[in-house]
Amino acid sequence: MTYSKIMLASASLFGALAFFLIAAPEVIFLLFGLPGSDDATVMSNRAAALFVGLAALSWFGRSVRTNEAKVLTLKSLIATMGSLIAVGVFHAVTKQVGFGVAVALVGEGLFLMAYLNCLKSAKDGRSV
Fold first, then answer.
1. pLDDT at position 39
2. For the chain, which ranges sit under pLDDT 70?
3. Rounded CA gap, 87 and 4, in Å?
4. DSSP string of 41-79, one letter each residue
5. Which end of the chain is less enclosed by CB atoms within 10 A, N or C?
6. Is residue 19 part of a domain?
7. Domain-embedded: residue 128
8. Please, is 4 exposed, middle or buried when counting C-beta atoms within 10 Å of its C-beta (0-12, 13-18, 19+)?
């Protein structure tokens, strides 16, 4: 998958997550097996704001020309996905979330592998 396509897919994913975290947080609560509450909704909305930022990074980063800028963007998204995976695994192992976290972990893992593959190509000097 090319850099531009990965960034477009990332922007779509992050945008969709932001939308659901604001417009329908109960969907996320259900997926993760979490009880809804006012506090959870507040934190969901704040997480949505972060996902808007990631969507913007991916959307605007999709058309950068230099490998240096691509590497910077990819490293940022690798850190994000790696962190989401680590937190998700921790919550799954400690049984703080339901089985639905597996769906998130699979998706995060696939995006992480795509970012790493693209980063390797960029570092090797190949066009990405």
1. 96
2. 127-128
3. 28
4. HHHHHHHHHHHHHHHHHHHHHTT--SHHHHHHHHHHHHH
5. N
6. yes
7. no
8. middle
Question: 29, 18 in Cβ contact below 8 A?
Answer: no
Tens-digit pLDDT profile for residues 2-37 = 999 999 999 999 999 999 999 999 999 999 999 999
Helix (H, G, I), strand (E, B) or coil at 85: helix
Q: What is the domain range of residue 31?
A: 3-123
Which pLDDT belongs to residue 40? 96
CB 7 within 8 A of CB 66: no
pLDDT at 41: 96
Q: Is residue 39 part of a domain?
A: yes
Quickly tell me which residue has 């979330």 as its tokens: 97
86 domain residue, yes or no: yes
Cα of 98 vs its chain's centroid, Å? 19
